[in-house]
Amino acid sequence: MLDNYTSSLTSAHKKFLEKLFPGGVAFDPEVLRVYASDASLKVGTVLAVVRPENSDQVCEFMRWAETENIAVHTRGRGTSLSGGCVPTIPGIVISMLGMDKILNISRDDFVAEVEPGVSTAQLQEECEKLGMLYPPDPASAKATSVGGNVATCAGGLRAVKYGVTRDYVIGVEAVLPGGKLLRFGGRTHKDVIGLDIGRLFVGSEGTLGVITKLTLKLIPKPEASASVLVGYASLDAALASMGKVFAAGILPCAVEFMNETVLEILTKTSEVPWPDTVKSLLLFQVDGSNDTVPFENARLSHQLHDALWRMEGVGKDEEDKIWAYRRRVSAASYVLGPDRIGGDMAVPRGSILSAVRRFEKIAASNGKRLVAFGHAGDGNIHANLHYDASDPDDARRTEKTHHELDAAALEFGGSLSGEHGAGYLKDVSKQLGKDEHALMRGIRRVFDPKGILNPGKGY
Amino acid sequence: MLDNYTSSLTSAHKKFLEKLFPGGVAFDPEVLRVYASDASLKVGTVLAVVRPENSDQVCEFMRWAETENIAVHTRGRGTSLSGGCVPTIPGIVISMLGMDKILNISRDDFVAEVEPGVSTAQLQEECEKLGMLYPPDPASAKATSVGGNVATCAGGLRAVKYGVTRDYVIGVEAVLPGGKLLRFGGRTHKDVIGLDIGRLFVGSEGTLGVITKLTLKLIPKPEASASVLVGYASLDAALASMGKVFAAGILPCAVEFMNETVLEILTKTSEVPWPDTVKSLLLFQVDGSNDTVPFENARLSHQLHDALWRMEGVGKDEEDKIWAYRRRVSAASYVLGPDRIGGDMAVPRGSILSAVRRFEKIAASNGKRLVAFGHAGDGNIHANLHYDASDPDDARRTEKTHHELDAAALEFGGSLSGEHGAGYLKDVSKQLGKDEHALMRGIRRVFDPKGILNPGKGY
Predict the structure, then answer these.
(1) Contacts of A120 (CB under 8 A, 6+ apart)
(2) Cβ <8 Å between B192 and A291
(3) Is A439 in a helix, a strand, or coil?
(4) What integer pLDDT is reported at residue B321 of this predicted model?
(5) Distance (Å, whole) CA A42 – CA A136
(6) CA-CA distance, A139 to A160, in Å (whole number)?
(7) Contacts of A350 in chain B (CB under 8 A)
């Protein structure tokens, strides 16, 4: 691993980049500022931004970057909440948004081949036009690229039934430091020859190579869906109901929860349809055929008979109205403070209630409120803390709470991150054993001996 | 990597093993003979068999084996069809069948923790008693261990809807050469901290470590299922029907196909219920709730209106009668010859028909018949060749055909193996690029610098 990365570009460096990326390179500080940060709002130092349009350019760039000891930070749409795209070690940002094509979508193979910069929502849409579904559905699908989803193994709303990004990546083409382009997997849904390196790229946070092409598995698009928002007197009652749904053999495609603080915020910031007795919400979606969805919906409703209130919707338009309450949570939470530290811990599913209650207590002991919602079916808790960064005491207490929440998640046998990744913000050594961590770093060195890829990020 | 492995055990070696595994070690050639082979019928050389009962013994053994330069071949139930368990380099077989406990199955977490030696069928059964499903369902579930399934990323009958073994492994505990016990993942359904090493173990064919514990994701058990066996005049007509099913948005949990040769064999070896006009079969299964399965079944039947003949069954007893025809294929195929070379190539789903036709031509050009059946929904073709090993010309032509089939599978963008693994029999260099292969071996060295784990196998 390098001790010293090149910390400024010579004019020879700049000439090389200008020649390799005609019209696709920037050194202007105004432009670089955009690429110095991501949705985490942490800021790093960018020496240049390059925007390849084909894999040949990526190969040549990676050959050069390794020789020149230059750190390379691969970037999609920069929506990382954990600082995964921030050049904390000064380097060149390689924006993959110039490689954003859908290369093909096959109704025969149920496979899509895409460049990494393609918008997740666009891919979903194109697949659906052809009667197919690309199931990974991060809440941020409209804002993210598939390459970014792969780098973080993005989860999302349908994960409880359909799994996460990892489960749909069957082929990866990537360029390694030194400039070699490697291909793993392909268009077959199954392949057990050799180690499954393609999937190792999923969730690797830009540390193994620059992905230049992805082959994704698709499934038939379900004909119909229905959603139900159900209200309970407490999160305890809500999660008890959820347990009954799974015990009855129902596998919804989405199960979201919102704690009491979320309902307070929603009530405070807008008109809400539920009565005052409702303090916690669950949101379910089921899918299937036009014939079966009404039955699935009825079976689900039967298990939710304890609910104090419910709002049902069948089909996109009606469901969108219901989901709007869930979508409003993040923005509405800013009434608690203009700044935010977000958590996305995962715990074993049966521990969600205890974990949220524990998190709330920790927050309260620091004079903070906990906004807790997320993917209950996966045990994935968005535990957000709002504060005012201009108030040093608030900032300190919030930071302290955040670290205590992470520690508590681990006590439940959980993970510091269910979908955002470690990025720059998570101290993975709290979760990973020393030997396990060393092994991961050993593997990283096989791909990237000098450590030029997204250094300081991941693990 | 070692050039020379210890090729015989000294009395000090034997004493060490007897002390570490009281009552759990064998040197008797009669016993060792059993462990020298697997379902591939290839034979290797076993220096000793050990049977640990806990992970402490595995740690101590692996510390010692690395120091003593002894090759270690991990073994479950020895059902590998590709020689994955055969000690082609003489070494010690570590049988994991002494660690076969189900440690816990949680209805709250939808997680099972098991030791690797547990029988797949037993785990499935115990989960189902609790209303949960462990979806991976290799056709050989009754004969296999979960650890063996993980080593090969076993697929099976339900993969088209539920995925393969990889998709259900969320935690792996394994002992590496040198004796360190490492833990990756755990009981959370989602975890994106660090590289996904747990899943790298899936399909690693015993080359990365000795797995001592597995944490598996479960799903709610569907209430009901239905199967339909449908007959067509040709495989062409059958697969055209399958295409319509997927295009209609139906995701069956199983889609099996059988080519014309299979039907000839079934007709020759037993009474069959279909008319003579039927030359190819598809077998579908759908699952869901008691209410929805009849609708799914009707929707499926509607897409299969082209079929010449059909046999439907709802519920286990009726379905078992239907599936019996599929299960009979392997055994019945021996009418074509007492010896077998099995193939389990995967191709992109849309290429199954062309691939099977190509395989048949290759077989015919060598004077052979091709038995082709398998998991059509995954593009996974069991392409079996039967012959008489006592006839050298037949054996030679069969071997030649087998290699030509492998080459043809790759021309379709396929894989040499969809579920059996490379083991000892597959020449992975035909499929893997040189750089990709070198990278995999580099990763292997991170886990196992001396190369004592299942040397000569995998990749």
Answers:
(1) A136, A138, A141, A142, A144, A145, A146, A149
(2) no
(3) helix
(4) 96
(5) 27
(6) 14
(7) 106-109
| B54-57: Cβ within 8 A, 24+ apart | B54/B99, B55/B99, B55/B173, B55/B175, B55/B181, B55/B212, B55/B213, B57/B20, B57/B21, B57/B24
DSSP 8-class letter at A208: S
User: Are A78 and A85 contacting, i.e. CB atoms less than 8 angstroms apart?
Assistant: yes
pLDDT digits (tens, 9 = 90+) for A334-352: 999 999 999 999 999 999 9
CA distances from A370 to A264, A328, A362, A405 (A): 11, 16, 9, 10
Is 90 exceeded by the pLDDT of residue B139? no
Cβ neighbours of A221 in B, within 8 Å:
249
Residue A321 contacts by C-beta under 8 Å, 6 or more apart in sequence?
Answer: A313
* pLDDT class of B156 with cuts at 50, 70, 90: confident
- The confidence band for A3, taking pLDDT boundaries of 50, 70 and 90, is confident
Alpha-carbon B345 to chain mean position: 12
- Taking the C-alpha atoms of residue B40 and residue B333, their distance in angstroms, rounded to an integer, is 16
- What are the pLDDT digits (tens) for A234-281? 999 999 999 999 999 999 999 999 999 999 999 999 999 999 999 999
Of A186, A418, A436, the CB nearest to B190: A418
CA distance B150 to B215: 11
Query: What value does the mean pLDDT of chain B take?
Result: 96
pLDDT category of residue B3 using cuts at 50, 70 and 90: confident
pLDDT on residue A181: 98
* 3-state DSSP assignment of residue A169: strand
Q: Does A349 sit within 8 Å of B419, measured CB to CB?
A: no
- CA nearest to A284, candidates A324, A307, A249, A312: A312
Residues B174, B142: contact at Cβ < 8 Å?
Answer: no
Query: What is the pairing mode between strands B46-50 and B91-95?
Result: parallel
Gap between the terminal Cα atoms of chain A: 14
- Among all residues of chain A, which has the CA nearest to that of B191? A418
| Burial class of residue A161 in the structure, from the number of CB atoms within 10 Å of its CB (0-12 exposed, 13-18 middle, 19+ buried) | middle
Task: Tell me the two tokens of residue B358.
Answer: 């190509």
Average pLDDT of every residue of chain A: 96
* Burial (Cβ within 10 Å: 0-12, 13-18, ≥19) of residue A79: buried
Contact B188 A248 (CB under 8 A): no
Enter the tokens of residue A450. Answer: 């000098």
The burial class, CB within 10 Å (0-12 / 13-18 / 19+), for B274 is: buried
Q: Where are the domains of chain A?
A: 102-220, 224-411
- Contacts of residue A233, Cβ cutoff 8 Å, sequence gap at least 6: A277, A278, A279, A280, A308
Instruction: Provide the CATH topology of domain A224-411.
Output: Vanillyl-alcohol Oxidase; Chain A, domain 3 (3.40.462)
ipTM greater than 0.90, yes or no?
A: yes
Write the residue in A183, A188, A288 that is nearest to B346 by C-beta.
Answer: A188
Decide if pLDDT at A1 tops 90.
no
For residue B15, the tally of other CB atoms under 10 A from its CB is 11
Which residues touch B353 (CB under 8 Å, ≥6 apart)? B235, B236, B239
In the predicted structure, residue B412 carries a pLDDT above the cut 90: yes
**pLDDT in the model for residue A254:** 96
Q: How far apart are CA B348 and CA B182, in angstroms?
A: 36
Q: Which of B176, B190, B416 to mutate to test the interface with A (most CBs of A within 10 A)?
A: B190
Phi-psi region of A314 (alpha: psi -120 to 50; beta: other; left: phi over 0): beta
Q: Is the pLDDT of residue A326 over 90?
A: yes
The CATH number corresponding to B102-220 among 3.30.465.10, 3.40.50.1980, 3.30.2130.30, 3.30.870.10 equals 3.30.465.10
DSSP string across B107-148:
TTTTEEEE-TTSBHHHHHHHHHHTTEE---B-TTTTT-BHHH
Tokens of B150: 């993980």
